Amino acid sequence: MTVIALRHFIDGAWIEGTGEALVDVNPSRPSDIVAEGPGASETDVDRAYCAARAAFEGWRRTPARARAAILLRAADIIDAHRDDWGRELAREEGKTVAEAIAETGHSANILRFHAQEVERQSGGVFESPSPGERILVIRRAVGVIGAITPFNFPISIPAWKLAPALVWGNTVVWKPATFVPVLAMRFAEALEQAGLPRGVLNLVNGTAAVGEAIVAHPDADAVTFTGSTKVGRLIAAQLAARGIPFQGEMGGKNAALVLADADLDVAVEQVAIGAFRAAGQKCTATSRVIVHEAVADEFLRRLAIRTERMVVGDAQDEGVEVGPVVDVAARDRVAAALVRARTTATPVVGPEPYSSGALAEGYFVPPSVFELHEDAPGELWTEELFGPVVGVRRVASTEAGIALVNDSEYGLSTAVFTTGLAEALSAIEDIRVGVVHINSASAGADLHVPFGGSGASALGPKEQGAAAREFFTETATVYLRG
Questions:
Q1: pLDDT tens profile 161-186
Q2: Is 50 marked active-site?
Q3: Distance between CA atoms of 91 and 189, rounded to whole angstroms?
Q4: What gap in Å lies between CA 79 and CA 357, rounded to an integer?
Q5: Catalytic residue of the set 42, 103, 212, 249
Q6: Among the four residues 70, 83, 203, 434, which has the most C-beta atoms within 10 Å?
């Protein structure tokens, strides 16, 4: 297959980087090189910031409707390439073709949503206690935004950060994850072809050093980040010392709570979807399952059958349900955790690592379910593995189940399975996470409502929906006297 030349988009031009060489491989078949070329250097990052700063005044003064029109044209371009770019996403990142095409189309819808948001009220007029005076509250762009995005949603997460940033008048310096430069290039191409002025969006591909340069640059007015909690907190601390706003969507250790009155067919299917799609590499993936003891045996029996039937294979093949994890380090890290789990937990579905054939060549991890010991549940309960693995614990009551849901430093997403209204309302009231699903998978986020968590899962304003403008704009209160 074609090897794509890795490029960077700085000041309206596609250029070759001046940093270290990067090789982007297909995680389903690592011998397949997807893209290669020099990554960005600190000098390239500086050029990107200079371009973004130079473009800011003109872009923020561009009428909002004109900015929105560019996003709408870019959305149409993405839609026109949805199937082809979706297949590239599956090849590059390892998400199944069906999921990859759906994500690509979703990114176009995100652009459309935020293009429409600037048509809504963005300020207000207030009465003043002083005669002849009115008080206005207006919103304005923050400035130059540093954006760092992850591998697991290589076009939709950039869309939900960059679309509100751009439509509200900011300029951007953006680093995607090292593993997904191609989809980042495609997204930038769509905006370029849609007529985005030079310097408004600048794309720098590279390793973690490029992200560090984005955070450290003196021209950064704010930084938005999605990634691990450890890295996010380090970035937040650096920025706080300089007084720079930070938005962080970080880790998750999400629970599914299956109550005694749950529809087990629904619960099993939704837990499987939440745990194993995208090979468990979602911040909202289900990785802990808490099940009432009255239905635990039957639930585990059905979950074992569904898990064993999951179709694992090349992400580009039709009918595959679980593709690879993103790289060899991720595969080996999850595999090592599963070896340790066999000494501290009871395997419900605990297959050995793939040792031959195509699955052994690629970065595949078999979907696994372990029942955890109450006295020492271990890392399957506490650590974000980012793989197709779930740990299960039994409880004797709804109250005990809710307590275990909250037994985590993370607070991103939870799924609750019940047919009882009272139980659902209790869960909504008492579970301390940012996203609660009743009778649906923990993994999932809609573009028109706020997304984000609490605790170790998030810092700063939430993302998506109308909440997105809270980070990408700042308010000014104006006292106006005639």
A1: 999 999 999 999 999 999 999 999 99
A2: no
A3: 19
A4: 36
A5: 249
A6: 203
